[in-house]
């Protein structure tokens, strides 16, 4: 194992380990999008036979990877955090901040899950209730917009659960005592 590789925090639990393992799928998706673009460039500029699928496929694969990246970062506890206060406090206060931050993030992603559900209702269902996936409207016309919206909903729900798991595991942790907070021994 690479010494510089980030370690998955134990607080992420089983869900974090599963998300971490799925990361390779989306990394390969980025490589596939690069291959599709190279293929498109060759077809267009060398053979003068452009494709109708390469740009939409590349956009789709990258969008799926970017949506998953938020969940991936959260499971590794590498999400964006304003650290001006966080870095100034000791381990006990940091534990409390971790719980609060995780709960606020869970609440936020819960609201985003609801918003994603509203998008999915329009993108995946006809007014009659039948399943009808929204398409791109291009010459190829794949259902990528609906698939991305459904995927975003799933990721938001899993992200909400991941933040709840983090909050619970931070709550269960025993607070560490730093040397400056420990009582002086005689």
UniProtKB/TrEMBL annotation:
The lineage of its organism: Bacteria, Pseudomonadati, Pseudomonadota, Alphaproteobacteria, Rhodospirillales. Part of the tripartite ATP-independent periplasmic (TRAP) transport system. GO terms for molecular function: transmembrane transporter activity. It is found in: Cell inner membrane. Residues 34-164 form the Tripartite ATP-independent periplasmic transporters DctQ component domain. One of its GO terms (biological process) is C4-dicarboxylate transport. It is a multi-pass membrane protein. GO terms for cellular component: plasma membrane. This is TRAP transporter small permease protein. The complex comprises the extracytoplasmic solute receptor protein and the two transmembrane proteins. Keywords: Cell inner membrane, Cell membrane, Membrane, Transmembrane, Transmembrane helix, Transport. Its main location: membrane. The keyword Oxidoreductase does not apply. Belongs to the TRAP transporter small permease family. The chain crosses the membrane at residues 22-46, 52-75, 96-120, 146-171.
